[in-house]
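so my prof wants the structure for this chain in the tokens format not the other one, which i didnt know existed until like an hour ago. anyway here's the sequence
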Amino acid sequence: MNRRILTGLAAILVSIFIFSCSKDNGNPTIKFVPGPGFTGKDTVMKVNYTLTVALLVNWNGVDALNKLEAKLNDALVESFDLTGESANYNLSITKGTAATEKWTFVVVDAKDNQSEISLTLTKDPNSEYGAILYFSPVGLGAQNNTTKGGFIGFRDLSATTYTLESAFSNQAGIDLFYYSDLLTHATLASPGSDVPADLFPGARNISLWTLKNATRFVKSTMTVSDFNAISNDAPIVNAWNDAQSVSKAGELKANDIWLVKLASGRKGAVLVKTIAGADAGEIQFEIKIQD
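here's what i got, hopefully its the right format
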């Protein structure tokens, strides 16, 4: 009887020992890695500006790393698979419109041991952002298209398209027009742009207009997903660069994104959807522009 009791006790003790050894070998570690543009400390940022967060994670010496989680105000944003003993990660986070945002980074190992660090972003009071208007689809005909107007103006809450004849009568309201030629091919321009002098024949040719609004253009590095995510004008305002602007957007193709600045000062982003034909063809695009 005593031998059975001792055997049972021994089995229990061995189980407890195995369980305790397998469960807690300490936590993995995680820390910020300061560098150019990143201090590793709470910071003030303008809305829609991006911060690259550098992280270094290490195992506890026994249990392999499993995953890295990024959370915003305790809600999971993204999870990354980890393997091995150590890893460096660079994560890009973008400041939203909230007054403060708490970003938490959690490293978890194969035995569910974990550690976390956090970073608080405070909105810069000098942030510039406001409402936008969204127009889609917008279709403009090229200079020899006889069925679709090739001019457009953005006034108040509307986007109005015009033929050459009606545009000539509303010169103050024209911001963009579309044409295609052998030099720049599919092109968005404005009456104030450097365009061929003989683009339109007769007395309505733009070279003879008395009021020529000049729109400026900047080729954007935004992706289509970035464009779709624009919900206020901060991404547009922050990305605009006067020094990089040009008088027209040439060589257009599907999924190109160009920033525009109208003569009125309003800024917008244009996403090219389709281009058909040449000088008698047309363009379809979407535009998000400051209200």
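also thought this was worth mentioning. The chain has four helices and 17 strands.
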